[in-house]
Amino acid sequence: MYKVIRKILFLLPPEEAHYVSLFLLQLICSTPFTRKLLRNFFEPVKVSPITIAGIHFRNPVGLAAGFDKNALHLRELSCLGFGHVEIGTVTPQPQRGNERPRLFRLPADNALINRMGFNNDGVVTIAKRLKYWREEVQPYVDLEKPLIIGGNIGKNKSTSNEEAWRDYEFCFERLHPWVDYFVVNVSSPNTPGLRALQDRSFLEKILTGLQKKNQEMKNPKPIFLKIAPDLEWIQVDEVIELVLAIGLDGLVVSNTTIRRDALLTPPNTVSRMGAGGLSGAPLKERNTSLLAYIHKKTNGKIPLIASGGIFTATDATEKFKAGASLVQVWTGFVYEGPAIAKNISAASPV
After folding, report:
1. Residue 229 CA to chain centroid, in angstroms?
2. CATH code for the domain of 178
3. Is residue 349 part of a domain?
4. Count: domains in the chain
5. N or C, which end of the chain is more exposed by having fewer CB within 10 Å?
6. Residue 19 located in a structural domain
7. What is the pLDDT of residues 56-111, one digit of tens each?
8. Which residues contact 57 (CB under 8 A, 6 or more apart)?
9. Is this structure's pTM higher than 0.85?
């Protein structure tokens, strides 16, 4: 059924298709009866609850940041069987993002290229939205266990790298009461200079400051770091050392790649799409290698969330065997459809 729907959606430009899909999902979920029907259909049959960093996930399949940037569709996404949804990336001030078109499909590769540029409504608006969800909506959503919400945070494009730590702390403080965990995004290729924040001097200041603020809170929240798949192994080693030293709760592996290796899509077509992060199936092998390397290097001491090239239960099993505790989908959702969490849940962490 979804293959037919996908053909229709793929007639639209990718970003427009995304918003149309969410609008239709919102319409379908407008009544308690239809929401219950969706849950009955999409809720995973095989449920494998898992606890990571003190958080109890009802299943290990989540929706990665970027799909519901502004926390507008949590009620609808909670009907599709996800164990968690990561909102964002959220910045202190609202951003329009990069000029359109900024999202491209590569169907031959089961991939996407995006250069969205942290388009979002800003942390103040999003925090209000999450507060409303927590206090007014979630108590009445018929779930056995609450939907886990992650807050992916970043810096505004206009903020210098020297001042970036202020943006991260600003977002952290305002989202803290309303999210279950945080992901520090210093690895998107679509904000100029952002990936330079993965250098130790910048990264240490950001993470140390967040961890200090976190420990001052009555209810500290787990903090994860999202890394790029394009890091050299020596850079990965430095990240591991820093994460262990600061006592971070884990890593999200990984963001999108700037590489364009071995694509089936013609080079001229890819070139016309321009700059941006590549996601989907081409990222699968590198992602798994990174997971396995970090897991082995740390003897499994750092919890890992796998994000990259996950479409099926077989893909998820590969990530779990490489050391991941949770998996996240985004591009896989676009190509496989709303049953992806149910289908992937057939795989369990090993």
Report:
1. 14
2. 3.20.20.70
3. no
4. 1
5. N
6. yes
7. 999 999 999 999 999 999 999 999 999 999 999 999 999 999 999 999 999 999 99
8. 49, 50, 51, 83, 84, 148, 326
9. yes
